[in-house]
Design goal:
Structural class: alpha+beta
Distance between the termini: 14 Å
């Protein structure tokens, strides 16, 4: 799942997000709520071992294992 986190992180950076790392993933903040929501949907559709939730103009990305 670390590789999936890195890929999702790279995608967020490519989309212009600012990244804040934490113990179980990262927070990516975008210019708009729509961008954050679209990014969270893309993460959830693309990767199986990580999940994302949009909160305002940011998306919180964590490993699913960390939620157990």
């Amino acid at each position: 799942f670390m590789e999936q986190l890195q890929q999702a992180r790279n995608l967020a950076i490519g989309l212009g997000a600012s990244i804040t790392d934490n113990d179980v993933g990262f927070i990516s903040c975008f210019d708009s709520n729509v961008m954050a929501s679209n990014y969270a949907n893309e993460v959830n559709d693309t990767w199986d071992d990580i999940t994302a939730e949009a909160q305002g103009n940011c998306a919180v990305v964590v490993t699913i294992a960390s939620l157990m």
